[in-house]
Design brief:
The protein contains 3 helices and no strands.
């Protein structure tokens, strides 16, 4: 059986990196990321394409990253 070699590059992505990528989608489609789900549901304003799914996943990652970041900051401030 042949063996396959897989090379992967890992890169740390910051919330700012994610925000920058989101801004590109927002500019292209004219919809803020926090209104993404609403725009999809309203009469097909946005069509469910791979690009939409990528944008949605990116926004979910951004929300998770910023929520985690806020929790760490608030724990540092707690007496």
């Amino acid at each position: 059986m042949a063996r396959a070699t897989v090379k992967a590059e890992l890169r740390f992505v910051t919330a700012e990196d994610l925000r920058s990528q989101l801004a590109e989608y927002e500019a292209r489609f004219g919809v803020p990321s926090d209104r993404l789900a609403d725009a999809f549901r309203r009469d097909g304003e946005l069509e469910e394409t791979q690009e939409f799914l990528d944008w949605s996943a990116l926004y979910s990652a951004y929300v998770a990253a910023t929520t985690s970041q806020r929790k760490r900051i608030s724990r540092r401030r707690a007496p």
